[in-house]
Design a protein that fits this description.
The protein is mostly helical. It has 10 helices and no strands.
């Protein structure tokens, strides 16, 4: 057993998931009432969380989460809240402070789960995969919010689509589906994307600043994925 990996424990993971849904329901419901948001905010938040919970349960086969996983789950819950708030984008555009706060918190927490995992020696492949998937969804959701707040054109959503397009390309061309070695470049650019997109939702940020920033982020993430694609294409045995 990997150090720090808890034994199978259905009640333990259920408690974590239940706590998350309670916090999410309270936040989404409170924001809906307090800000006069559409009725769809709470149901959408809960549906998004239900999908997360099912996927996480299947990935872990009911095993308890590590401390690092719990940090990632907290970050994922913020992402589900950001998804749920999308029906209220028109209302939130007048004062996007809550969106900015949640987005920045989710982006900055990205490094916390890894630090916790290393300190408590509870690194697992499942935890790393969970963290990566939350990163991907976060970028997609933040890109949608940047567009929804009229800070950039529809093209900004490509930032969040890149990873899924890469996966789709791997289905078509198996060489692109091979695992890539860990990359500091990839980690840094992912962090820059999350923080940069979060900053693009900041209250009062002029479009003349947000749009060029979003464009620079798109070019940066495109560069990173193109480098990975070329590496795998030229070296079909990469990752074996």
């Amino acid at each position: 057993m990997v150090p720090g990996q808890p034994h199978a424990s259905h009640p333990a993971i259920l408690v974590d998931l239940l706590l998350g849904v309670i916090l999410l329901a309270g936040a989404a419901g409170g924001l809906r009432i307090g800000l006069g948001l559409p009725a769809g905010v709470l149901p959408l938040s809960l549906v998004a969380y239900a999908v997360l919970a099912v996927l996480l349960w299947r990935q872990r086969a009911g095993r308890a989460l590590t401390q690092a996983d719990r940090v990632t789950l907290g970050r994922a819950t913020l992402v589900m809240l950001l998804i749920g708030l999308l029906p209220g984008a028109e209302v939130m555009a007048a004062d996007p402070a809550p969106i900015f706060a949640f987005a920045l918190a989710a982006a900055l927490l990205d490094g916390v789960d890894g630090a916790v995992a290393r300190r408590l020696r509870c690194q697992t492949r499942a935890g790393a995969r969970f963290d990566m998937e939350v990163d991907a969804v976060l970028l997609a959701v933040l890109a949608i919010w940047v567009y929804a707040l009229d800070r950039a054109g529809l093209w900004v959503i490509l930032i969040g689509l890149w990873r899924y397009l890469f996966v789709l390309a791997g289905w078509v061309q198996p060489a692109l589906a091979r695992p890539l070695p860990a990359s500091q470049r990839r980690r840094v650019i992912c962090g820059i994307q999350a923080v940069g997109l979060a900053l693009c939702t900041a209250p009062g940020l002029p479009v003349t600043v947000a749009t060029p920033t979003a464009l620079a982020l798109l070019l940066l993430v495109s560069y990173s994925f193109i480098i990975d694609a070329v590496t795998l294409w030229r070296n079909p045995n990469q990752g074996e």
